[in-house]
Amino acid sequence: MAQSFNQYYQHIRQQQKREGLLWSGAILLVYLYSGHIAEFDWLVIWHGIPHFFDYIAEILPILHWQNLFADGHTKGSLAYWGYRLHIQIPLLGQTIAVAIAATLFSSILAAIAAFPSANNTNTHRGCRYILRTVAAFCRTMPELAWAVMFVMAFGIGPIPGFFALALHTFGAQTKLFYESVEVASDKPVRGLRALGATRIERMRYGLWPQVAPTFYSYTFMRLEINFRQSTILGLVGAGGIGQELMTSIKLDHFDQVSMVLLQIILVVSILDFLSGKIRTYILQGGQHV
Question: Within 13 Å of residue 75, how many CA atoms lie on the same side as its CB?
């Protein structure tokens, strides 16, 4: 008995190794072929590595220690480096506001649409297909494409950025949310069904407590993504700090490029820290974190 089990185990192990090697070889071939089609060239990378930090070196501000804390008219001072902060900070606030508004609006809609989009909620097949199709269309269009369309319709400003982020976020969040609903345990749902609960009640009390932590995590993660995307959307006229970044790049104001990038890095870091704290606070039921 033990010998037959050992033979069976060795046979399965060998089969798994063969399949693993076959899949690894196939993936390697696809990878190499993709590199060939994309004209990937190691020589280009080798010659380009020494110049990788050239642009970073160019945008670094010229600061002089003896003038570091002088007024804004003295070159080499911090004040001279940040002479446009009174313009950039309101634009940065506008970018943050657009990212938060788009994330909250689209995530709430996605959370509502996720339950009828899932396969395990007994939703009508046609309704589920329509919701999934709309979500797929919204996330298939890049944010930049949406932004260009809305800039053409509404003009330059934060409104195109809001709609572009909201539509793409709705599509992406809906997919993530309904996939989370589909992998939730159906035992609470069956228990509620046996007690005569309605479909809405089964979703509310059987599925929502299971998927709520995942929904919150995806929402906070999406907020960070949307802030970074909103800076990119500013490059096509969707307002915010991205528009200031594009202007600085076009006018070769390299010191202001570094100032804007520094502000973006700081805000992303703060958002990452705060979102982690808020997520932990919510998931622990308001306990001290």
Answer: 2
The pLDDT of residue 289 is 44
As separate numbers, helices (DSSP H) first and strands (DSSP E) second, the chain gives 13, 0
CA dihedral 132, 143, 161, 138 (to 10 degrees): -10
> Which structural domains are found in the chain, ordered by start?
88-283 (1.10.3720.10)
Task: Quick: pLDDT tens for 93-106.
Answer: 888 999 999 999 99
Q: 71 near 79, Cβ under 8 Å?
A: yes
272: left (phi over 0), alpha (psi -120 to 50) or beta: alpha
- Look up residue 49 and give its two tokens: 């590595």
Q: How many residues are recorded in the chain? A: 289
Contact 193, 158 (CB under 8 A): no
DSSP state at residue 205? I
Residue 61, both tokens: 């501000």
Please name the residues in contact with 24: beta carbons below 8 A apart, sequence gap of 6 or more: none
pLDDT tens column, 134-148 = 999 999 988 888 988
In angstroms, the Cα distances linking 198 to 35, 86, 101, 195 are: 54, 56, 33, 9
Neighbours of 72 (CB within 10 A): 12
Collapsing DSSP states into helix, strand and coil, what is residue 79? helix
Q: How far apart are the first and last CA of the chain?
A: 55
Q: Take residue 192 and report the two structure tokens written for it.
A: 């509620």
pLDDT at residue 286 greater than cutoff 70: no
192: CB partners within 8 A, 6+ apart = 201, 202, 205, 206
